[in-house]
Design goal:
CATH topology of the domain at 123-241: Jelly Rolls
Helix content: under 10%
Strand content: 25-35%
CATH superfamily of the domain at 123-241: Jelly Rolls
Radius of gyration: 21 Å
Number of strands: 12
CATH class of the domain at 123-241: Mainly Beta
Largest sheet: 7 strands, antiparallel
Length: 247
């Protein structure tokens, strides 16, 4: 990035500020979930739990400046290409110098990585908490949440699975990062989409199983990234071509 290089590993969020110039150079094959918004993403304002919980900013990894303008890089005939993304399509700009060559920077707007293993999960023994308690970052009309391993609700009679509902204000996206739910594997890479106004929730069989197995499991071992959007989302042709035909 134009702030310096950032290494990432499995489970990392890689935050890139709006208008940040970046280039991805992976060591191995990488599968990513990319979330883009027209507004900048920001840490939600601190609530009753304070500004270090559930997301402690001190756990973020910040890049160090690293001059790299040594003539080696993705240049063509001495020019470096930068693609500017906007609604009308990408515009290509060319520079005579490496655009991510950096000697130093200062300020509070920077790229960083944060691993989901360092996220402190809010829990309750007696009630299944609403998704917003797991809020990680937000932009105007976009909310990103981490559903991560946690102790299961322990008070007998508590409904452990998310309630059946419809969200008339937001589209809901769930990206399965891995794990399991009361012994049922959650395949990594699976994505579900619940458009605004459509009833959805855990299947009744899953709900009944959670009740029946209440005493056998004391932990929820899932890793799910949830994205709620105020504007309706339109699935691309590539998404529809891989539709499994089930919720």
């Amino acid at each position: 990035t134009e702030f310096g290089p950032l290494r990432y590993r499995m489970g990392d969020w890689v935050y890139l500020p709006k208008a940040c110039t970046w280039r991805q150079v992976p060591d191995t094959e990488t599968t990513l979930l990319m979330v883009e918004a027209t507004d900048e993403f920001r840490v939600p304002p601190p609530g009753q739990l304070g500004r270090h919980f559930p997301f402690d900013p001190s756990q973020a990894t910040i890049p160090e400046p690293a001059p790299i303008d040594n003539g080696v890089g993705p240049h063509i005939n001495g020019q470096y290409e930068v693609r500017l993304m906007h609604d009308g399509g990408p515009t290509t700009l060319y520079y005579q110098h490496n655009p991510i060559d950096v000697e130093g920077w200062r300020g509070d707007n920077f790229a960083f990585t944060f691993n989901i293993a360092d996220y402190n999960v809010v829990t309750s023994d007696s009630v299944h908490l609403p998704p917003t308690v797991h809020l990680f970052m937000q932009a105007t009309g976009v909310y990103v949440m981490n559903f991560l391993p946690k102790p299961a609700e322990s008070v007998p009679g508590t409904e452990r699975t998310p309630w059946y509902h419809r969200n008339v204000d937001y589209d809901e996206i769930a990206f399965f990062h891995g794990g399991s739910l009361y012994g049922i594997p959650m395949p990594p890479g699976l994505i579900s989409h619940a458009p605004q106004g459509v009833h959805h929730g855990a299947p009744e069989k899953a709900r009944e199983r959670a009740r029946r197995k209440f005493g056998e499991y004391d932990k929820v071992d899932w890793s799910v990234i949830a994205i709620d959007t105020r504007r309706r989302l339109t699935p691309s042709a590539e998404v529809l071509a891989n539709d499994l035909g089930q919720h």
